[in-house]
Amino acid sequence: MDYLVQLASDPAAWIALVTLVAMEVVLGIDNLVFISILTNKLPADQRSRGRRIGIGLALILRLGLLSTVAVIVQLTTPILTVFGQGFSWRDLILIAGGLFLVWKATKEIHHNVDPHPGADMFESGKVTISFSAAIVQILMLDLVFSIDSIITAVGMTEHIPIMVIAVIVAVLTMLLAADPLARFIEANPTVVMLALGFLIMIGMTLIAEGFGAHVPKGYIYAAMAFSAAVEGLNMMSRRAKGRTGGTRH
């Protein structure tokens, strides 16, 4: 109790908390976009439940990983070397998660541009997936994003209570934004393609990080924000043309 009181009276702790909350919310956007796109392929009556379960699993994974901080820190220790490049468990997890994200987003783009795909590497062109398949895929990416999130938190502060609060706030923000974001993506087909492009970029970033190439997150999110702003202008333009019947006077 004395430790918590002392922590609460420390201005540096509050600065760390605000910074870490902002960082965790930003990192959660990647996770949320994937969950939104994937659950939109479920039957309508299962989508909201799928999103809640997916985000709930993200919270459980993050809090579970926080309880094993000593183990998480060791994940950054190289366990093998290939052609002079050392790889840790974190690197291998990021590479595997990035490859899965790129494959999944590419598959979705394929089905969006070709509504009647034949028998190919992407198999059938089903527009829906089973509830259990969606949860398994969400769980896989939750694990990747959770490990990245917790390692970021460990690097920013040594106080576990601050990490716990930041994670809970970030996940609650995801929970509040999940349904509106999913509905917005579903109602705007061009946004779906943009979001899938974001997922490919995020996947490539994870792969690069796994191979030791640090990619500043600020550049990634600035590119995403710029692309989203351009798409917003396109949407405004389409609405304006719709109101005028597509003609100019």
> Which structural class do you get from the secondary structure elements?
mainly alpha
Bulk shape? globular
- State which percent range the strand residues make up: under 5%
Strand order of the largest sheet: 1-2
Give the helix tally: 9
Largest sheet: 2 strands, antiparallel
Uncertain regions: pLDDT < 50 for 5+ in a row? none
User: Would you tell me the overall average pLDDT?
Assistant: 77
Helix fraction?
over 70%
CA(first)-CA(last) distance = 71 Å
Number of separate structural domains: 2
DSSP strand tally = 2
Question: What is the chain-wise order of helices and strands?
Answer: HHHHEEHHHHH
| Rg for CA atoms | 20 Å
Please provide a written account of the structure.
By secondary structure, this protein is mainly alpha-helical. It folds into 2 domains: 9-212, no CATH class; 216-249. The protein has helices at residues 2-8, 11-39, 44-66, 69-74, 89-113, 131-156, 160-187, 189-210, 217-243, and strands spanning 78-82, 85-88. The chain has a two-stranded antiparallel ribbon with strand order 1-2. It is globular and about 60 Å long. The mean pLDDT is 77.
